[in-house]
Amino acid sequence: MNDLSNHEQAIELLQELGLKEYEAKAFVALTRLPQGTAKEISDISEVPRTRVYDAVRVLETKGLVEIQHANPQRFRAVSIDEAAETLRREYEDRVDSLRTSLREIEPAVPAENTEVTHEVWALSGGSAITSRTQQLVDESDDEVILVIGDESAYTPELQERLQAAGDRDVSVVIGITEESLRERVQRELPNAKVFASGLEWLNSSAETGDETVIRRLLLVDRNTILVSSFHEDLGEGHEHEQAVFGRGFDNGLVAIVRRLMYTGLLSNVEA
Amino acid sequence: MNDLSNHEQAIELLQELGLKEYEAKAFVALTRLPQGTAKEISDISEVPRTRVYDAVRVLETKGLVEIQHANPQRFRAVSIDEAAETLRREYEDRVDSLRTSLREIEPAVPAENTEVTHEVWALSGGSAITSRTQQLVDESDDEVILVIGDESAYTPELQERLQAAGDRDVSVVIGITEESLRERVQRELPNAKVFASGLEWLNSSAETGDETVIRRLLLVDRNTILVSSFHEDLGEGHEHEQAVFGRGFDNGLVAIVRRLMYTGLLSNVEA
DNA sequence: ACCCACCTTCACTCACATAATCACAATAAG
DNA sequence: CTTATTGTGATTATGTGAGTGAAGGTGGGT
User: Fold this and answer.
1) Contact A88 B95 (CB under 8 A)
2) How many other CB atoms sit within 10 Å of the CB of residue A242?
3) What CA–CA distance (Å, rounded) separates B94 from B100?
4) Å from A184 (CA) to D24 (C1')?
5) SS3 A45
6) What is the pLDDT of residues B20-61, one digit of tens each?
7) Which among B221, B258, B79 is positioned nearest to B142, based on CA atoms?
8) Shortest distance, CA B183 to any CA of chain A (angstroms)
């Protein structure tokens, strides 16, 4: 009976989607009824009866609820799919407007200050990291070395870009832990050297007791690296991927990773 | 130079998408720079320098900003498309979860109280109204009379459903004010009787001075109606469509509209 | 080695939005 | 007419975020 859980989760999600607590609770309550009065809603949600009216009026203006003006007033939620679609569209529109607005804003360049070496950037979130990974592969000029520690980090888009890199004579070397994936990658990227990653020791959860694994490890042209790690994370239940990427041949971090990858990993390739 | 406008609009949109004011301002500021320090961000946004750090950290965890841990720290926004995509996905996921959660919640039926006649429901928002209109057409059993006061109210989806109604021997009658649209509808719905709406007098903005127009007027099986009106609305600039729909042959509202449509409008059809 | 300017963090106040409660008017039922 | 229930509005409490300042840290210049 994790129905309670669903119930609460729905309320939370609605709030994250911009509804107030009372609005969210009232909507979920209405979802459980074919229709309802303020009193009924108040009974099964925990919204004070006198506040149900305000909440429902707001929901009505958002297109999520219909109101029957009688005495007592009766309220009815639109279907779940209709509600979802309404909300989805609302945000879709906002994101589109945002994109447009941002493009129109003129850049401000206060000071020339483009020191390009020794950068080390931190970033988080799977999609941001995926995107940066692809970008770095696209930029590659000479050599790409990539260790994949997790099947989900190997996407079709990445595959394409690796292929493209290979096609323009970039040397592509890929290390993979899982054997099944290794075979698949070898098949899909005939130009690349695919080898068994000697990386297992990095993901030593047994010893350290933490649940962090290295998911991606990328070295481009010997002067740019990206490392991402993945936490199952604290009871929160929400997982998270974090990464750093660094540029500059003489960047300390880059140097360490370069050394690591060349000595610890590439020895397997030639062998 | 409504660039200011774009600037402010972007900030507002970001807040509607869940960012705090400082976070939104900082992000927009970063969008205008290839990269920036806390001071630079503070200068071109109106975020106190000491709070730029908090804001940017939050942005980083959302995958919108990258951080360079140096002294001074440097920040960089991801590309506009990347940011938009990240936000879009975030909400897409939430809506999907919401749909799932809502489906799982068991219904609660506190009291049998399903009085089906004499309903009059109020609803707002173009999409909710469109959806209800289509649903009513789908339910039609015998006769559909629809007056369209606005080209945008005649969508391909609606056309399909009217077609389908006609195919199952429902009598479809459509009134339209604009001549150009009338020809098109007649062409697309050969089964339907399309006529010049005698409805102009309803949209008497000249006399009443208000900017409200009747957008849709629907009568289904002589016992269910839907009326929607559209306001250009107060300086707010945000337009809004509102509607009522009612059920029950002996429902007063339904009776009035039925009478109106039969006498005032349908006389044209036979003529 | 020291000072000084700046960077960064943190704790705190204030204002405002929202949650929560109450008083009262309107309506319907008995 | 009485009474219970419904609906509206005002009022109070609470929590969050905006805005400000103090204090510690860092690096550069003397």
Assistant:
1) yes
2) 18
3) 10
4) 54
5) coil
6) 999 999 999 999 988 888 998 998 888 999 999 999 989 988
7) B221
8) 31
